[in-house]
Automatic annotation (TrEMBL):
CDD domains: nit (cd07572). Transmembrane segments: none annotated. This is 2-oxoglutaramate amidase. Keywords: Hydrolase. Its EC number is 3.5.1.111. It comes from Methylobrevis pamukkalensis. It comes from the Bacteria. It is an enzyme of class 3 (hydrolase).
Length: 282
């Protein structure tokens, strides 16, 4: 049995990328110091700001982004896979990409993933989000080979779309990811259930680094970064919403073991879609 040590860095990113870089680098170093070969950071690692104008003032194109460039150097120095759960990056059409990067141990970019599902919701507590007004949604699911295990990339709200995770499992991913900036309200109700369900239904590890606490822009995120095994057992969890890091050892062979024991992937069948009953409504 050869174990692979993974880590989640939990952050409380604010509006200034330079300050967020200092906080991120320190915790990435701490995780690597604890022996992690793969370190994940949350959605919007480089900055969390609500105002579109403020966002546009502070971000750059991928090729000029100092935050990304510095963390590529750090990953190379530490010899780790560094998964930046997402950065806000200026896209070609003037909109913003909510883009994850997986940096390989040599500092090269092994994978990029743009968040597919936009968080356009109105919550009961009055919180209203319209990501599609600012962000350009991605169109493509992406896997990346981490050596001992293949990872499928997703971001935050994507975790509510089980067919994306199914597609990753069918493509051979044994580690599913959904780095997040979950709202406190939805986190309290749904966070653990969603992460554990994606693990159980796909017989895969789920690793999700989270933003946590009250941010400079006033928003509150849930925290509770999680590492879940293919049986749905929580291997590691951040105690609450404070910045910090967690590590756990994962056993890539457990993916095949669990998929053999409960072969729901292999037992899946196609079926005809149900008709909509006359006069039926949701
Ligand atoms: N940033 C996000 O995608 C938030 C998703 C979220 O909070 C949820 O409940 O889903």
């Amino acid at each position: 049995m050869s174990l692979f040590r993974v880590a989640c860095v939990q952050l409380r990113s604010g509006r200034e990328p330079a300050a967020n870089l200092v906080a991120t680098e320190a915790l990435v170093r701490e995780a690597a110091g604890a022996g992690a070969a793969y370190v994940q950071t949350p959605e919007m690692t480089n900055l969390l700001v609500r105002s579109r104008a403020e966002l546009m003032e502070r971000i750059g194109r991928e090729e000029d982004d100092a935050f990304l460039a510095r963390l590529r150097e750090v990953a190379a120095e530490l010899g780790i896979f560094l998964h930046l759960g997402s950065l806000a990056i200026l896209a070609d059409d003037g909109r913003v990409a909510n883009r994850a990067f997986v940096i390989a141990p040599d500092g090269s970019i092994a994978a990029r993933y743009d968040k597919i599902h936009m968080f356009d919701v109105d919550l009961a507590n009055g919180e209203s989000w319209r990501e599609s007004a600012t962000y350009q949604p991605g169109e493509t699911a992406v896997t990346v080979d981490l050596g001992p295990i293949v990872a499928g990339l997703a971001i935050c709200y994507d975790v509510r779309f089980p067919h994306l995770f199914r597609a990753y499992a069918k493509a051979g991913a044994g580690l599913l990811t959904a780095p997040a900036a979950f709202t406190r309200q939805t986190g309290e109700a749904h966070w653990h259930l969603l992460q554990r369900t994606r693990a159980i239904e796909n017989g895969a590890y789920v690793v999700t680094a989270a933003q946590g606490g009250r941010h400079e822009d006033g928003r509150e995120t849930y925290g509770h970064s999680l590492i879940v095994d293919p049986w749905g057992k929580v291997l590691g969890e951040a105690a609450g919403d404070a910045p910090g890091m967690i590590v756990a050892d994962i056993d890539p062979e457990m993916v095949a073991t669990i998929r053999g024991r409960v072969p729901s992937l292999a037992n899946e069948r196609a079926f005809a879609a149900p008709g909509v009953p006359e006069g039926g409504s949701a």
